Amino acid sequence: MFKEKVKDKGLEQSFRPALNVEFDVFLQQQSLRFAPENCLKIDLHCHDHNSDVPDELWGRILRLPETWLKTKKLVKLLKENGSQVTTITNHNNARSCWDLKAKGIDVLVAAEFTCFFPEYDLFIHVLTYGFSQEQEVILNNKRQNVYDFLRYTAAEDLPVIMPHPLYFYTRNEKIDLSLFEKLAVIFARFEVLNGQRDLWQSVLTLNWVQSLSPEKILGYAKKHNLDPADFGVDPHKPKVLTAGSDDHTGIFAGQCGSYLYIENLAERLKTTPASELALEALRKGDVAPFGQVGENQKLNIALLDYFSQVATKIKDPGLFRIMLHRGSTWDKIGCFMVSNLLLEMQKHKKTMKFFSFVHDALQGKKPNKLLKWQVSKDYKYCINQLEKIADSKKDGPEAFTETVNLAIKDLFTHLNRLIAQRVESAIKDNNGIRLDSFSTEEITRKFEIPSQLTALFLGDGKRQDNMSNIRVEKLLDNLSFPFLISLILAGSTLASTRVLYQNRQLLNQFAQHLGKNQHSNRALYLTDTLLDKNGVSASLSGKLKEIQRADLPVDFLICHADLDSAPHLHVVRPITEFEVHRYGEQKIRIPDLMEIATIFYDGGYDRIICSTEGPMAAVSLFIQQMFNVPSYFFMHTDWVDFIKHTTDLNQHERDRVRRLMRALYNRYDGVFVLNSEHKEWLTGYEMQLEEDKVFLTAHHTQPRDLGIHKISKASIIPGANNDTPVLFIACRISKEKGILELPEIVKRAKKHIPNLKIVVAGSGPAEQQLKQALPEAIFLGWQDKKQLAALYLGLDLFVFPSRFDTFGNVILEAFVHGMPTIAYNCKGPKDIIQNNKNGYLVGDIAEMSDKIVEYFSSQNIQSNMQQHALQRAAEYQAEPIMQQFLQDVGLELPIMYNNQKTVA
């Protein structure tokens, strides 16, 4: 579904367009090799219902065939799409071919045998053609060792093809490039176009096969003590390139395949069956691929069709079967949950009907016209999309593929908006908590589901003090259709892409070995906040400006209703948004998952960064699993400390939050922290992250705007003059920031400095409380960057009573303008402030008051500290910090990014 191009303001990347051009040139050359009138058209790789034992472990555990497609329907579809020879390559059997031959139908007998590569503990597929029933028995016996299997096919003159050479059904750490050296020796034919695999794999395979010179093959043979002749391979002949649809659903069969050249074809067909001529051409190697790679679009459609059928056809696999089957504990738990979900879904007729309609639409059959009159207004849109899908079937494969994938995206967006609209009413109806009145205590205490499944699905007649206040059976009544359908849409999209990239590390190594077609190295940086009124937004905005200035290989992505995309910035519109009023003006925006997946794919990104624990964290983990890419988390907030300062949760309840954070951070390949204390905490007993996965970083300063002049104290403080001592604080005015300690701090200091003033910039939930406790203070409200700069320049000492902040970006902002800072000796501040040099690090209120008095007691102290503040700010330059950041996430540095002085 990711065929759309990202063209907003220079964000389009060249990786996939370049692959497209390269492969199109190859296919054009292949189309000119043979005269069309002397070619037989064949799909060398397709399946029907006799592929009934899947390679995927979960399919075997759940007793699911790879397809329910009937042989008759497949044969009909192949003919409709122009195939002149029929073959069916089911897994490890040719039952469909034998059945067709028994009915007198000409068919090229074939199967896709799963063979074992002993030294790699790996199973590979081998397409094999032209065998007899007696030979099929022998082939199935010999497939336990791929060398024995291929020696036998060579001796019997049975042509074989290595399909999808870069795709394996398992991640195997033993796989290395020596495997491909052996494949070059033991195979003469390779499938370079597979209708269900992606363009990158196809181009890599093509370039590798075409690079196999006789010298290379003979060198590999000697290196691995293999004789090519044993496998029917002539090193001096070019490798034969083939194609097939790999269709399992009856949607794409015949759309990809091979032209088989037979000299004087028309005359030969008068005396010889087409299947025999096809076998002859395969043996000779007179083959030319045709068709188009579908990226993951075709596989996404196939899996959606498959999941739709699974939902309606799955039977209870049995608990003992799941428990006793081969596989990890997580595999079995996953299968148990999936089977329970699908079996529960089967009780809901509306959902089952929709899945049937999806299957029919993908086969080109429109929903009944009366259906529009029967469904509610909310679901008429879904019927319209299914009609579009069915109608597009007659417009050709490319139009069909594009229509389906756009419909999947649009359906997902529509259904999720519907879910968002209904969740609030579902919560109200069940007397649950309101979205606009969430509190940390409620979320933490209610974040639970019952372990008793009957209580979850059927209810136990009692009100639960957890998330099951809104019981699943109630949700299924109100939200089952949109939620479950969107789950299937997201699941098919994730699975189709994950299948293609489960061996991404191998693909990267392969491209590096070839020296071409290397995936672009770019990171997509997800965040829930960028231009909001908080410190995290300010620091992220600074990071984005540096990325834009230096054209670094990172692009930000945010969800916002009003902002527009810009260079290095994607903006997606929220499906819904709401405010958490208790925490000020911060909005929670729910993004469109499919849209972000599209941007990631089309943008040529190969890693993900997330810097907030909101909805974007869930999106980042989805992208991580979908594309099998490295993922990193940038920790801005210590939530355990946050709830300690803002809630009355006890230690056990806070531990629940800590465990949730530990589970979240462990899902990432690396976590960035802003202070040494957090690094020690994350790698210590409580969080248990590996030390080499926790990176210490910092926010960088932004250059001072020389056009801004200091503010006059008298302009904001009645009766003040240039000599009036003034404290300054700029932050979100909330309890966790320590602002309620300010009245006592100022009171103590004023005993020695009677004319001491304090100016407060910012807003927040504790603003009124602070005004009442500190009536003599000057409250300026929220200030923009220019206003803050003037205040830093014109006032005297920045006071920072927070013990909560992980860094303290405002400290650096103060330093940039020569304003020293006094703060508690904790977390972020202690890594920035050099005590008694550019500020003070203190232990309590009394010491903070004493140091304020000390600072204003001497002009020399003030002057020295101001100079040292400027010097410290200069040590937090953008280039060295961003340079280290890029290195830690594995990105190459631009040439212009030279080594700079690092942070002290």
Automatic annotation (TrEMBL):
Stored Gene3D superfamilies: Glycogen Phosphorylase B, Metal-dependent hydrolases
UniProt lineage: Bacteria, Pseudomonadati, Pseudomonadota, Gammaproteobacteria, Alteromonadales
Domain Glycosyl transferase family intervals: 718-869
Pfam families xref list: Glycos_transf_1
Protein name: Conserved domain protein/glycosyl transferase, group 1 family protein
Biological source species: Paraglaciecola arctica BSs20135
UniProt GO molecular function: glycosyltransferase activity
Domain of life: Bacteria
InterPro entries in UniProt: Glyco_trans_1, Glycosyltransferase_grp1, Pol/histidinol_Pase-like
